[in-house]
Every structure is written in structure tokens, then in C-alpha cells.
Structure prediction request, 382 residues.
Amino acid sequence: MGTTGEVFVIAGTGTLSMEMAISNTLRSGDDMLVVSHGFFGDRFVELCERRDLNVDVLRSKWGKAVSVEEIEEQLRKKSYDAITVTHVDTSTGVSAPIKEIGEILKKYEDTLYIVDGVCSTAGQREYIDEMDIDILLTGSQKAFGVAPGLAILWAGEKALERRKSLGTISEYYIDFERWIPIMNDPSKYFATPAVNMIWALKESINIIKEEGLENRYKRHIRNGRAMQAALEGLGFELLADKDVRAVTLSNALYMDGIDDVEFRSILAEEGVVVAGGLGDYAGKMFRLGHMGNIDIHDMVSTIGAIERTLYRVGVDVELGEGVGILMGELLK
Amino acid sequence: MIPGPTPVVRSIQDEMARETVAFGDPGFVKDYKELLVDMKELWELQVKYS
Prediction:
């Protein structure tokens, strides 16, 4: 397969790759459309405002998604230099229809399509050319199953041309132009690569190649839906609407009477650490990841630990019910 | 089971635990180059505008 464009793998985080995408493609005064489904969509707004971009935001209620029709309507009303969409917003568990948005953007050739894949890349289907994505960005620590420490960004031809048109940019470390010679020939030096993290990501890619990327996406769908069925079977409501629900994580709302700190502390005693809710949902839900290189043992033990925790905080739970649902779904 | 960092399997941990080499080490340069090619091909980064 012939490929063009560039992929950048440098020491950093997902947030650095967000900044890298913006800094290399937009100048002060440019018009940006941000589609936000939560906390991390809103982070783009902050980044853009710091760069003096004119930002318009299409923001959904948490748990819901901005429709493709709303996006198209906004694009018809105003010309944008770029649009950002967070594929999966970790704060809400909402998955954006990135393929359908890419279809619309074919009609808007001057608008760069930037997809934040921090909570999706290597777990949910993303193909840059097929989906008309100009920049896909992510980090190493989520569906790649590598420790934190790498910023990862793919840039297509249109994004690289936009970078060239900007001339010198104020950012140094994240400048595409400085990294392109190194990405083409890693024996050259610009800034020190994170040697062991590069090896770690290479091993993650070996695992992905062995499994097959499509098989990996299918596994994430099966695992995600099974975990979500088990959580709902135990009485949790999930924040994201079913038709826009991600498969890389689940954001489970507590039943009445459950204290977040107590629940997560007991769950940790039972061997599983989960994340708390963000923003208005702090204290009202927990966030459970099920992406990357986890297996059936991880999932069964996690749902079992959640059942024991519910029992210990006084919820009338039938022990084994969630595990039964999970295994039933996985074995379908 | 937080949504990142996610569990890191043993074979990836082993790579992180390797003895660090100079970034100009020929073996490392080869590995880095292969990684970048794989990432372009797997995610199908191709030209769209000729």
C-alpha cells in the first residue's frame, strides 16, 4: 500500500498532540468549529482561544451527541478553516459519527478535519483516508495499552500543505517542519526520542498486527457491549445514549444512595480502580475503561468486584448476575 | 480499569524495561522506522488531493 502524509510519534501526551494539531494548521484570527461532547471537546475551545482563533462551538448535552445535520447546517452558514471532533469523549462516553462527518466535509475542501482519537484510536474504527480525516491525534496510554508518554499524530497532505502555508510558527518542539526529517529518517536528530516508549509502542503494534486491526475493533465492540449489558443488569444507568455509546469505556451513573468516594474506595479494596465523573457528574458516576489489551479474565473479575462492592454498600444485588450477563454476552 | 492508562501487558512492559540505548543506535533507528511505516499503513494514511 502506498502512503503519503506523515505520522509523528514524539514524547508527550494526548493534550500535546491536540496542541500540535492546532499550532501547525491555524493562525490567529482563523475560524474554527469545535464539536464538543464533553470535557475534552471543551479543551479544544480553551486551546483555540489561547491562539486567538475565532471559535464556534456545537455542544451537546452530556450523554448526547451533536447531530450530523446540525454540523452540516453550521458548515453551510459559515466557512471554517478547521473543525475538531473528539471521537470518544472520555468524560461522557459519547462516540461521534466521524465517518459520516467526514462524508459531509468532502464538500468543504478548505476545512481541515481534525479528529481527537485519544480515547478511541486502536479501539474504535478509524481509517484516515476512507474517513477523509486530515489529522488524527492520540496518546499511547489508552487503546494502545502502552504507558503514558507518547503523543501520536497522523497528518494528511492537506494538513501538511496548510502547515507550509503558515511559514514560521511560534511553537518549537511541536512544529511539523522540525519533525518531518526525523520521521522520514529517525537516525537524524531534532529532540531526544523516548527510546523505551518507542519500543513499547512497537510491541503494541506487533500485538495489533497479530490480532488484526479489524478483529481488534470487533473485539472492542463485543467487550464494550458485554460490559455495558452487565452494568445495566446490575442496575446502573449509562450516561451516553445507546445509539452514540462508545465501546472503549462506560460511564455508569450511581443509583440513589451510593456515595462516590465510598463506592470507589471499596471497589479499590476489591481490586479494581475506576475513575470518577468529571464536571457536573463528579460524585454522580464512575468511569470504567475496557479498551486495549484486556482479556475476559480482566472483565469477569471487574464485574465481580463491582457486584461485591454493591453488596458491601448495601445495594440489594443478586451476586453473580452481572458476571452471568457478561459471560452470556461474550459467548454469544 | 480506569479509561487510561489502561493495563499494560507483560510483553510491552518488557520493552519499557529494556536497557536504554543511544537514540542513534542502529537497532533503535531500525525499530523506530518500522514503527512509523506500520502506523501509516495500519491507519491507511494516503494522499487524498493530487
About this structure: The domain at 6-207 of chain A is CATH 3.40.640.10 (Aspartate Aminotransferase; domain 2). Chain A is about 40% helix and 15% strand.
